[in-house]
Design brief:
15 helices
């Protein structure tokens, strides 16, 4: 066949186009891995002169041990850098520009609130929003951030997937937090869900790890590959059908799980594990939980789907409590055997049981105790912490590497005590050293923080549903598209 100049020209054009496209792809890939994350929003009181480009440094470090004390710090290393955090502008559509401009205004408003010198004053609005200032790292910053969230925050819920593994979850027993949040996002009358994906700030993947374990896991095998495969397939589905995951490699996406194996399931996709927001009860900083991007979810055990009647209302504040401390629970994990070894049956002031005697009531003991011991089990989280809050029994946290829920904004030291594991033999000495004045302050703190750990139906402002969303909102505030 005879070649013509026209044919040769077309082929040259094709080759040049291919070379150009390849060059662009290389540049984008190199740029993707070269960018670093901006600092995260912090809720410490700051002076007016302290600022960072479009980042309000307002949230203080989480309480606890040094290895996770700086919970939200720009120096906390990310395992994966996403182009969502680039410092240089990249092309975005007008809607995204509008969203980012709104977030920038929210950051500025929060920064201004945080810099106010009288931040110790209790916040009230129309005598309804009463926030006890001592339980917050910066009450004005938190209140302003919460108001900005209510004003702006929009969540898109993916509709892909079938019930029960997606769009459903357990709403009673130990995984209540998981199912209730999924159901509220799917069916609740809240202001945050949007059906317009382009108007969303974050994207929720409503799969249930608890139901994966129930329906996909082969009992007693400890083989969790089916969970990882399901998560991998789900991410592949939404990233193929929609453009949003690929735009940020999942940095503005979040999932939620209260099952112990939630973190393991997220291994099904490396971007989900390293880049996305993971809302987890199993918030163990020594097992990959990254408090700079992940959210600690409170574990709330609701028998039959509702709070025990004895804990439904705050107890009367002046009733005497006969026991210094109380614990009852199965012996599993590394901490509880130590606790039982030193205190089970050794002291009438510290009531420690593996299992309560018949006809004894667990919640009666809580309501009759000044301090409730909350040791971790196989995993770090314990529903006893929330139950202790309901009972106004000061939680005594006995857990290594546990990033406590909502510690972005809450001062856990204002309503709980944290005891190092090596101090368990000195437990009575430590608790007796708490002065009466300090004890009253801690009880007042529990009364003030209770609203943030209540699962309301329908949901109510400042309750646990809104606090979970607020934690996600804070992490989204740190993502910029340009």
């Amino acid at each position: 066949m005879v070649k013509t100049k026209s044919t040769d020209g077309i082929r040259v054009s094709i080759v040049l186009s291919a070379v150009f496209s390849t060059s662009i792809a290389v540049v984008l890939v190199l740029g993707f891995y070269s960018h670093k994350i901006d600092g995260f929003l912090r809720f410490d009181s700051v002076s007016g002169g302290e600022s960072r480009a479009q980042i309000a440094e307002l949230i203080a470090a989480a309480p606890g041990r040094d290895e996770f004390r700086a919970v939200i710090s720009s120096e906390f290393p990310f395992k994966f850098n996403s182009s969502a955090f680039t410092n240089k502008p990249i092309p975005v559509r007008r809607k995204n520009n509008e969203l980012e401009q709104g977030l920038a205004r929210a950051r500025a408003a929060i920064r201004k609130a945080a810099s106010m010198t009288n931040s110790s004053v209790n916040i009230t609005k129309n005598n309804s929003d009463i926030l006890l200032s001592k339980i917050y790292r910066n009450p004005r910053a938190f209140y302003r951030s919460y108001m900005e969230m209510e004003r702006r925050f929009k969540v898109f819920v993916y509709e892909e997937g079938d019930v029960p593994l997606v769009h459903d979850g357990p709403c009673k027993d130990i995984y209540t937090s998981e199912g209730r949040f999924i159901h509220e996002m799917e069916h609740g009358n809240n202001m945050f869900r949007t059906r317009n994906a382009k108007a969303a700030h974050v994207y929720f993947m409503p799969f249930s790890v608890a139901w994966m374990v129930k329906y996909l896991y082969n009992p007693n095998t400890y083989e969790i590959t089916p969970l990882k495969e399901f998560v991998s397939d789900y991410v592949k589905l939404i990233s193929t059908k929609h453009p949003f995951w690929n735009r940020t490699q999942g940095a503005d996406h979040f999932m939620l799980s209260c099952h112990d194996w939630g973190p393991h399931a997220t291994h099904g996709n490396p971007f989900l594990y390293n880049t996305s927001i993971r809302v987890l009860c199993n918030a163990n900083s020594s097992e990959g939980f990254n408090p700079q991007k992940d959210v600690s979810l409170p574990e709330i055990h609701l028998y039959g789907g509702s709070i025990n009647p004895k804990l439904r209302l705050p107890p009367k504040p002046n009733i005497a409590r006969r026991y210094l401390a109380f614990f009852a629970g199965g012996v599993h994990g590394p901490v509880r055997p130590i606790l039982l070894h030193y205190w089970k049956g050794h002291d009438n002031d510290i009531q420690v049981y593996e299992y309560l005697p018949q006809k004894e009531d667990y919640y009666d003991y809580m309501l009759q105790s000044k301090f409730c011991l909350c040791p971790s089990g196989y995993e770090v989280a314990s529903p006893r912490i929330v139950e202790a809050i309901y009972a106004e029994c000061i939680p005594v946290i006995l857990s290594d590497h546990y990033v406590l829920p909502f510690s972005d904004v809450l001062r856990w030291e204002a309503f709980s005590i944290q005891v190092e594991l090596h101090d368990i033999p000195r437990l009575k000495e430590i608790l007796l050293a708490v002065s009466e004045e300090r004890y009253v302050e801690l009880k007042n703190g529990l009364r003030g923080v209770r609203k943030h750990f209540i699962l309301n139906q329908p949901v109510d402002r400042f309750d646990v549903f809104h606090m979970i969303l607020h934690s996600v909102w804070l992490r989204r505030l740190n993502i910029r598209f340009g």
